[in-house]
Structure prediction request, 240 residues.
Amino acid sequence: MKDNRKYVSSSEKAEIVLKSLCQKSPQTISELTETLVKTLPIKPTTARSSVTRIVNDLIEIGILEEVGSAEKGAKLVDFTPYGIYLITISFPHTGAKYITMDDILHYLHKKNKEIEELLRIYLYLKSDKEEEEEEEFSSFLETLDLVADLEEEEINNWKDLEDSILDLCIMELEEYIDKRGGLLYLEELMSKMPKELKRAYKRVLYSYKDKIEEEIKNYELRKNKIQELISKLSKTTISP
Prediction:
């Protein structure tokens, strides 16, 4: 659908570029420029300049990366795993006008179905909670930039992304469980869950169980160390 506004911000243009990459990836600057021209009332030369600048900015943030060259030598760009993670955790704050989480899911469906399923679980758990007021920053690009500056998660490949999305799912589960009746509510939530998500949900539950068991082991070790100290103190006369 053509946007006939006279002015569209760089941030909105970035959304159009990313949305296009969700639909088809990787792409060249020329292909992304063509999408921008089809979407906005903008000259091809102006569009190409905008796309080049936006792609360079997104590469600098870590959202995109060069992934080779097309037949005629033009560079191809695509999402990085870190970029998908950054968009996921930033999205509630962006006030996005063009790109949606469905676009990201569509991209992951082609790229990595395991991660797509985990992300669907995360979004399902998150959306079921009572709506909270989300602070919105001034633009999509500025939000990504700010969150990138604050984010300490290291995601260098798709396996890292899978583990990080799994951790996000577990964090959502912990929030439910910390509330009164949380376990019963999670069971009710599972009964309403779309059938195609239940396999991934089972995986999340197993991972959370493993995490709990690891924490129990760590606390047992701490308990034993403390007991050793207590036993030593019991054998020693301590002067006031």
